Amino acid sequence: MSDETTDAPGPVTMLATPIGLDFDFTPGIAQSKFLRGLEQGKFLGQRCPVCGKVYVPSRGSCPTDGVPTTEDVELSNVGTVTTYCVVNVPFAGQSIEIPYICAQILLDGANLSFMGLLQEIPTDQIRMGMRVEAVWVEPDQLTPSLASVRYFRPVDEPDADYETYKEYL
Amino acid sequence: MAERCAVIGVGQTHHKAKREDVSIAGLVREAAKAALADADLTWSDIDAVVIGKAPDMFEGNMMPEIYLAPALGAVGKPMFRVHTAGSVGGSTALVAAHLVKSGIHKRVLTVAYEKQSDSDAMWALSVPQPFAAPLLAGAGGYFAPHIRAYMRRSGAPEHIGRMVAVKDRQNAMRNPYAHLHLADIDMKMVEESMMLWDPLRYLEACPSSDGAAAMVLAAEDALSGQYPPAWIHGTAMRSEPTMFAGRDQVNPQAGRDCSADVYAQAGITNPREQFDCAEVYVPFSWYEPMWLENLGFCDLGDGWKLTESGATAFDGDIPWNASGGVLSSNPIGASGMLRFLEVAMQVRGQAGEHQVDGAKLALGQAYGGGSQFFSMWVVGSAKP
Amino acid sequence: MSAAARTPRPVSIASFAQMQNVRKDDEHNEVEMLMPVIAEVFGNIGITKDDVDFICSGSTDYLIGGPFSFVMALDAVGVWPPRSESHVEMDGAWALYEAWVLLQEGEIDAALVYSFGRSSLGDLNEILSLQLDPYYLAPMWPDTVSLAALQARALIDAGKATEADFAAIAARSRKDALSNPKAQVANDIPAETLLEDEYVVSPLRRHALPPITDGAAAIVLAAGDKARQWSDKPVWITGFDHRIETHSLGARDLTSSPSTTRAAEVAGLADGPVDVAEIHAPYAHQEIIIREALGLDETVPINPSGGPLAANPLMSAGLIRIGEAAASIKSGKAKRAVAHATSGPCLQQNLVCVLEGE
Fold first, then answer.
1. CA C19, CA A67: separation in Å to the nearest integer?
2. Predicted TM-score (pTM) of this structure
3. Which residues of chain A neighbour C43 with C-beta distances below 8 Å?
């Protein structure tokens, strides 16, 4: 070791080695139906032949019974906010201005809530049980993607009773 | 008939946001060497190595047991890699315990780690999936709605989360290995911290840490070490589907079943009375009252009252996370193992400043994914 | 060594199923791939998920390109009510090992093991580079075929094999695969013709490389009364072990496999004759190394299923070797068999499972 120079390089503590990999994504048969539904401006789910529950989107199996879900079910455009959070943290890839409401939405006729963006309401006015509807992009903009749903917004209906959705929190 | 198995050595790193002074190999060796030293053993005394961590994408190193085999003295030995999401640190220890309980090996080294600073964990968790809306902002965005559901169900007042955030950080002041040492922490400081995922504030969430944990597990005829063994009285794992109709994410059935299993093995009928302390995976403050109920330390809806009463504080009747817990150190893959390791330290009487007086029987719990994976063990100073 | 001294609890391969191995399954997601395999592995012996006490799976996120790929795959089983379940980021052969360990304790009697791998979704050569030392090797992206070629070259230079040997192994494997309806690559092309193939990376010609395969497989393990209930003539695991070598290729003799030899010793392979071997040697030359490491002479048939040269679904190919070896015994073609699985570059980690019929 030499002390002759004061600006000798220190130890290497970090080495940036970017990794970029491309992958194909295979949605599968059931999820493709859901995506094709979005392309037509509607939510398509599937019913389990054993327990009768309706899953949207379906990944092809009933998660509890482990059997294929085969019966297609068209669901309502309207649903209930079962629970939510307000996202106020910036992250890479974020395309929505913070703060925004990330809500669990149970579509009428479904037995599983999914996560959706809620807009057209101040973040401090959102409530569990609020009734909301999907706002779709213009018909000529529809694609087999969740981008077809711009967001959800409140509808002029009384809030759902807690008892009706407490199993779907 | 299963053999008896005990923890005879523990080791952990100093957990920090960035451990730039060590490589991944250096990090796991730091914990492993400490565990071997504690057990008075060397690498050659070890029969097999079991390693665990959360997704490989956190470091960008696929199936890291391949690269880490020589660093952990595993060359020529069986080396095994476990991955069960956030519960992995716990389930890794359980696989190691089974290698001893089954009679296959006498001494097994088990290690878990995460070096989050080597990559971007939040990015790795939020890889854009085609056809999906990029709504989630890390794990907090996933758990916050369930916390809100708990508050709604139990009627818990808002300050409970802040109490846990303060309590665990105060505990961490007694733990030299903890990542966060916030000497000035108080309710006001938590309340004034940034709201990240309403209702979760910045100081109610776990940090991102680099760190590793290691233990040596041994059969009854292979004990060694400076401290008495921590005997394993019960082990259990449970999983349930990630999303299904009617799933209770606040009080998951898998967690209840897992604790019922491990309690039956260990003869626990009243966890609050029989355990002297517990280390439970609480990455967000509200998970303390939620898991108090899930683990049967109180009646349903009363978890927050237990927290509010101070029962789970360091000087309470059932201290939870005397080490400072996940809220103070979160090397993800190692976080579960740290829970298991900390209770072993407690019943061995080696926890130093955060030693719970006279701890003889304790519960370690880890959970992962979206609260669908659980692993637990009960350790005690008495031979089972 | 404790491992060699102990007599394991008898555990049987009660049922085995695998997906049709294909180059690319772009129709099904992982759940849809696995569901029929799991239905078949239970259906073979007339049981349901309620009859197994433990579930363990093997897979890797880097084949799918997203974290936690094993999580949703569990929906193919339907773990409700909650089950005791675990996952290894390894080939399913190691998941089978974990389940076997639990069965050794004597407290449970049956386990489901499954694995899946879609090798087709990304560039495998690039993906597997990420298994290497992340500081000194991976940043240079050495590809997995080139590493295998280094090993093949070492084998040739050591006088242990020739390119004609590689071609002979490839020709035999794909010819044998003609009788395996699940195989992906099956043909009858003489070795001499194969030697006219271009080099991919010298000395490896195209035929010496495994195909890229999407696949999935499952096995039910049983012990105690269940082993007898589910089979008239159980196929028993009589020895099971795995070992790893150092990561640094420069510190290894790439022409031998001491970890395989050690695992075979602990598994008691030499305790009896071997009628058939299913070897997870993705590259043709690796069969020569593993055959020698296992101490198998030229009379022992290797990979009658076609082996990984006929179908190599990553993360499942090792588990399939065990299933195929068990099938050889079940069909009466063999009384005692050995199955092998590997992981890491150039056979760094190896597993040996010894099976016996009654």
1. 17
2. 0.96
3. none
Whether residues C157 and C293 fall in one domain? yes
**CA triple B281-B284-B287, angle to 5 deg:** 60
DSSP string, C126-177: HHHHTTS-TTTTGGG---HHHHHHHHHHHHHHTTS--HHHHHHHHHHHHHHG
Q: What's the CA gap between B322 and B177, in Å, rounded?
A: 13
* Res B127 pLDDT > 70: no
What value of ipTM does the predicted structure carry? 0.97
Q: Is A111 on the interface with C (CB under 8 A)?
A: no
- C171 shares a domain with C29: no
Indicate whether C192 and C328 sit together in one domain: yes
Give all domains of chain B, ordered by start, each with its CATH number.
Answer: 5-121+208-222 (3.40.47.10)
Contact check, Cβ <8 Å, A145/B130: yes
Compute the nearest-CA separation of B350 from chain A (Å): 33
Cross-strand partners of B235: B377
- Token pair of C233, please? 């003539």
On whether both C193 and C258 belong to a single domain, the answer is yes
* Full pLDDT tens readout for chain C, 358 residues: 444 457 899 999 999 999 999 999 999 999 999 999 999 999 999 999 999 999 999 999 999 888 888 988 999 999 999 999 999 999 999 999 999 999 999 999 999 999 999 999 999 999 999 999 999 999 999 999 999 999 999 999 999 999 999 999 999 999 999 999 999 999 999 999 999 999 999 999 999 999 999 999 999 999 999 999 999 999 999 999 999 999 999 999 999 999 999 999 999 999 999 999 999 999 999 999 999 999 999 999 999 999 999 999 999 999 999 999 999 999 999 999 999 999 999 999 999 999 999 9
Count chain B–chain C contacts defined by CB atoms under 8 A: 184
What chain A residue is nearest to C138 in terms of C-alpha separation?
A17
Q: Which domain holds residue C75?
A: 2-123+212-229
Contact status, residue C185 vs residue C158, Cβ threshold 8 Å: no
Q: Residue C137: which CATH number? A: 3.40.47.10
Considering the domain architecture, whether residues C42 and C159 belong to the same structural domain is answered as no
**What pLDDT, in 10s, does the model give residues B99-120?**
999 999 999 999 999 998 887 6
| Domain stop point among C177, C198, C229 | C229
- Chosen domain end from C178, C194, C229: C229
List the single residue in B60, B83, B241 with the smallest CB-CB distance to C74.
Answer: B241
Q: Is C49 on the interface with A (CB under 8 A)?
A: yes
Q: How far is A15 from chain C (nearest CA, A)?
A: 8
Kindly state whether residues C260 and C309 are assigned to the same domain. yes
By three-state DSSP, how is residue A137 classified?
coil
Q: What percent of chain A has pLDDT over 90?
A: 63
Tell me whether A1 touches chain B (CB under 8 Å): no
**Three-state secondary structure call for residue A81:** strand
Q: Which residues of B touch C247 (CB under 8 A)?
A: 66-70
Q: How many domains does chain C have?
A: 2
* 3-state per-residue secondary structure call for chain B: CCCCEEEEEEEECCCECCCCCCCHHHHHHHHHHHHHHHCCCCHHHCCEEEEECCCHHHCCCCCCHHHHCCCCCCECCCEEEECECECHHHHHHHHHHHHHHCCCCCEEEEEEEEEHHHCCHHHHHCCCCCCCCCCCCHHHHHHHHHHHHHHHHHCCCCHHHHHHHHHHHHHHCCCCCCCCCCCCCCHHHHHHCCEEEECEEHHHECCCCEEEEEEEEEEHHHCCCCCCCEEEEEEEEEECCCCCCCCCCCCCHHHHHHHHHHHHHHCCCCHHHHCCEEEECCCECCHHHHHHHHCCCCCCCCHHHHHHHCCCCCCCCCCECCCCHHHHCCCHHHHHHHHHHHHHHHHHCCCHHHCCCCCCEEEEEEEECCCCEEEEEEEECCCC
